[in-house]
Amino acid sequence: MVRRSMQESRLTDDQIDPEMIHDIFTQAIQDLKVLQERQERKCMRLEQAVQEEEKQYGAKLSEIMDQHSHCVNVFSTLDERMSRCGGRALEVGEKLGAARAPRARSAAARDLLSHLANFLSPGPVLTDLFNDPNKLNEAADVIQKLYTIAQELPPDKFEVAKKKIEAKYDEIERNLIEEFVKAQNQGNLAKMKTIANIMTNFKGYSQCVDAFIETSQMNTLLGKDIFASVLPLCKKNNTIITSVFPNPEQVMSKFVLNIFHLKLQKYIQTKLADKNDIEKYLRNLYDMYTSTQKVCDELVAAGMVSADGNISTGDLRREALVNGAMAAANDGYAALEIRRLKAVLSNALNVYYNEKHHVKKQIQGGGFQELRRDLQAVIGTRANINIAQIENYGGETFLSEQLVQKMLADANMSFLRCKTLCTSNELSGTAIALLDVLIQQLLIEHVDYALDLGLQSIPIAENKSPPQIYFFEIVNQTNKIVKMFEEHFQESVLPCLSSTTKQSECVQKKTLVLEQLENKVDAGLERAIAAVVGWVRLHLHTEQKKTDFKPEGDIDTLASPACLAVVSYLNSVMDKVYANLEGENLQAVSLELAVRLHRVIYEHLQNFQFNSAGAMIAICDVKEYRSAACGRSGSAPHAHALFDALHALCNLLLVKPENLHQVCEGETLAELDQSILHNFIQLRSDYKSHKLSSFLKGLS
């Protein structure tokens, strides 16, 4: 309206009528005042209405508060009255209870006396309570009390009644056990628990437990491997025992004990009944013992058996269960194991030698026998008769790694069983006895015997034909077998002797035997070297011609035929040495052989005279000898030095006389004794013609 009036007040687009605007505003203000008065009157009416309602609610609230106070007072009064009534009711109840207990006891005593009177009267007891199967639990309670009373009665006057009570007691006890078994077969755990609680007051409670165990284990543990069924059976029945019996720990212990002392013991005795086959018996004994231990470990892990046991709580001890199941089956085990190992190893050796078509010989050792053998061999060689009967068996070593592996496997099983089955008092003694058998059969009867045969098969040094040396192969196999034995000793023997005083004794015994073998190996290597060097000496002595080093005319500068034959043989020998020996043995043998060959060749060359062509041949021979004796990798520097010196000495046979002094003062020959140089220079064919003796005087 104001906006419209403002528009009407415009005279033109740019002019406004102020009076009209003033009238418009004045009229608008009056209208607003009228509207304000109207709203104020309305607010006053609303305030009056609210005040009236507030007065009404205040009055009503005051009335309610008065009523609430009255109710609180009434409730307090009622509470006091109820407390007084409750106290009086409790007092009355106590008085009634005190008065009722004697009456109840009197009633119970009256009933017991009534039942006792029935037993005192002649003839059978015909009371319904004792003849109704449905009242068996109630009858059990009564007869148990009567049985207790009967024990206090004088025997003379109440003998008949006591016998009747005892008979009925036994009858009800049997009936309870029968009902318990029926409930067990039906799986009625609640009834089983009720009867078990009743039976705890009877002297035949253990019979109830036995009946439960017998029924639970009936037609169980019947398979081929009953050990695998023990833990599931125990777990299944442990749940039932915990739910039924008031003393589940003792019942479970008896349940487990029955399995080990009856079921497993009978099964083990059946398995071990046949002792004719010792191998099978010992294998079964070990299997039974370890299987029993495994079952015990499973029960220990399941918490049904204690590792140490506790007599006060009835916990079973693991070791006692194992011994109970075995029932002394491992008594006498040690003697059987020793006898078995000796028989098995001896039989393995016999089979091996039979396959080789070899009959073992009684070999006598000692210095006299060695001297006798050498004399017979020398005489036989000179007379071309085989008196000494030296036999090399076609290169057969009579050693077998496969045989040794089998023997050690058998021994390992024996030591394993020994550690498992022997008691702590028997263990060390049995282990030592088994070790004695193993040493005797493996190291003495097999390895030591093969070394003796190998020693006898080594040809003597005076043989004209190249000696065939097979002893190096024997040494190689002996080393391998000894290593296998050492590993077995560490892995199988020592664990049986740990923390005992016998351990050092066994180590010393093993060391003595191995030293004996080592001495024979050393003797054989010495004899083999002597045979090789002896043949080289003999062959060079018989086959080397004087014309080899003093040829006539022009010839090719090559090694002599005798040298080539020796070198060919030496190469074959050194091949065997390097193929079969290792470590210190290889170094010692190769060095000793090179030193002795050097000595033989040195002495051999001093038996000849040399012209220039012959000196060249001698130098070629020495090169061949050096190549054969120490031309392989790893050869000793000392051997190289010896042959280098010999090569330098041979140069003295070739150089011009005027250069001898210079050569003798060379690095290689300067350290040698002057007599050695003089002796070699005297081997020159021109020694006298060139008057080299005067030179030697100047050299000295």
TrEMBL record:
A GO BP term here is: Golgi to plasma membrane transport
Q: What Pfam families would the database entry show?
A: Sec10_HB (PF07393), Sec10_N (PF20667)
The residue ranges of the Exocyst complex component Sec10-like alpha-helical bundle domain are: 138-694
Can you give the residue ranges of the Exocyst complex component Sec10 N-terminal domain?
20-132
GO cellular component, alphabetical, reads:
exocyst
Q: Which UniProt keywords apply?
A: Coiled coil, Exocytosis, Transport
From the record, what ranges are coiled-coil?
A: 29-56
This chain belongs to the protein called Exocyst complex component 5
Say which species the protein is native to: Papilio xuthus (Asian swallowtail butterfly)
